[in-house]
Amino acid sequence: MKLKKIIPLMYLFIGTLALPQASLSEEKIKVIPLIQSTKGLSSENFNYLEGEPELRLLKVKIPPGFKTPIHTHPSPMLIHVTRGRIKHVRGEEINFFKAGDAFIESNKGGAHYLKNVGKKPAILHVGVVSIVGMPTAINK
Known about the structure:
The protein is mainly beta. It has a single domain, classed as Jelly Rolls. It contains one helix and nine strands. The strands form three sheets. Strands 1-8-3-6 form a four-stranded antiparallel β-sheet, with no helix packed on it. Strands 5-4-7 form a three-stranded antiparallel β-sheet, with no helix packed on it. The longest helix is centred in the N-terminal third of the chain and has 16 residues.
């Protein structure tokens, strides 16, 4: 009795071995540039800081409706929105970003704030080119 139950499972297992499998050598790495620029928002140049270099990668989760304090960044940043929709306001300049968008925040860009204008938490991945001991943001 038990053998009758096992035999169909063995055929199923052996059958999957005969199916074509993707060869690892056929798979290729895809590199898709998201952003590249010499300027940040507002067309402001950025510069690298003097001191002991430090790279940071941050995952920022912004609740729905939340507005950050007005702040600046002393270091240049790459921002990739991976979920949600945000509004970026610097003076009279307003930009909207959604999942899949990327932008550069210059360390010379001036004071601004972000607001999650979506109904779910927004997720940003932020790469910071900084120096040891430098804060990521400075509230005004």
